[in-house]
Amino acid sequence: MDTRVALVTGAARGIGREIAVRLAEDGFDLAVADLREEAVAETAELVAAAGRRTLVSATDVSDEDAVVAMIERVSSELGGLDAVVNNAGILHLTPILDISAAEWDQTMAVNLRGTFLVSREAFRRMKERGAGKIVSIASLAAKVGGITAGAHYAASKAGVICFTKSLAAQAAAFSINVNAVAPGPVATEMTADWGDEVNEAFRARIPFGRYAEPRDVANAVAFLLSEQAGYITGEVIDVNGGSYMD
Ligand SMILES: NC(=O)c1ccc[n+]([C@@H]2O[C@H](COP(=O)([O-])OP(=O)(O)OC[C@H]3O[C@@H](n4cnc5c(N)ncnc54)[C@H](O)[C@@H]3O)[C@@H](O)[C@H]2O)c1
Fold first, then answer.
1. Nearest atom (ligand 1) to Cα of 91
2. Which of 1, 121, 192, 205 is packed most tightly, with the most Cβ within 10 A?
3. 159: helix, coil or strand?
4. Which ligand 1 atom sits nearest the alpha carbon of residue 183?
5. Is 211 a catalytic residue?
6. Distance between CA atoms of 177 and 230, rounded to whole angstroms?
7. pTM value?
8. Four-CA torsion 22, 26, 30, 33, nearest 10 degrees
């Protein structure tokens, strides 16, 4: 592998933490970013325990200045930026008639604008080197609409997929791969918030009969960041236990 320094956003818990640990096992040094400063520092400790260098960044991915500063810091302190995982995300279950404009904007700001800002700044760096890989975490909701998830969440994740394809087309000339992973429900605090009734109904519709574990998602991300995926770009890998096949 020629990719060595990775940045994972939303790495304080759940899927993001697992991606960071998985990439550390693959030999990456890790920059881990999140709003939750204490929890993301714990992720960094797990990465360090795997023998890798770490950098902790308390960054809000929707804040342009903060993102520009974070990418600059990661590049200078860890000596480059080879891989980026846009994982930070928020989910509201609000029915459409109850979605306020502020909640709509907040969802777009974190899930879509955050993915755009981090990717844009990473692309700027990777373009100079002529190498790099970017993976964004979309969602099954991006393909089928928000069933439990809110319409704003589904729309933001559909935006992530379309942005992924647009960036993939522009970045390919610089040997940069840009892909997405679209998980169905994953056993994290995000879905624990849905309650038992909703979760049981969902599980019943999954051919594999269980939710994804964070490691299932992390494995797909690790593949897309590996040399084996060197000719794959603009792709969306479903990790949904067969609940939707396209
Ligand atoms: N859990 C699922 O079922 C599921 C399914 C499909 C997609 N996803 C997506 O996977 C990603 C991770 O989900 P999860 O289940 O681990 O969620 P989670 O809520 O457990 O973790 C999300 C992390 O993102 C961080 N975050 C939120 N806003 C941020 C911001 N503005 N800047 C930086 N960090 C911020 C949170 O602090 C948190 O640590 C999200 O993008 C989510 O939409 C999750």
1. 43
2. 121
3. helix
4. 6
5. no
6. 7
7. 0.98
8. -30
Distance between CA 2 and CA 107 in Å, rounded?
Answer: 35
Q: Which residues line ligand 1 (CB under 6 A)?
A: 9-10, 12-16, 34-36, 60-62, 87-91, 110, 114, 137, 139, 183, 185-186, 188-191
**Tens digit of each residue's pLDDT, the chain (246 residues):** 444 999 999 999 999 999 999 999 999 999 999 999 999 999 999 999 999 999 999 999 999 999 999 999 999 999 999 999 999 999 999 999 999 999 999 999 999 999 999 999 999 999 999 999 999 999 999 999 998 889 999 999 999 999 999 999 999 999 999 999 999 999 999 999 888 998 999 999 999 999 999 999 999 999 999 999 999 999 999 999 999 999
Q: Where do the domains of the chain lie?
A: 5-239
Instruction: Calculate how far, in angstroms, residue 180's C-alpha sits from the geometric centre of ligand 1.
Output: 15
- Closest C-alpha residue for ligand 1 atom 20: 14
Say how far apart CA 9 and CA 20 lie, in whole Å: 9
Give, for ligand 1, the residue of 21, 34, 136 to mutate: max count of ligand atoms closer than 8 Å to Cβ.
Answer: 34
Cα of 229 vs centre of ligand 1, distance in Å, is 24
Q: Does domain 5-239 have CATH number 3.40.50.720?
A: yes
CA 227, 218, 35, 28 torsion-angle sign: negative
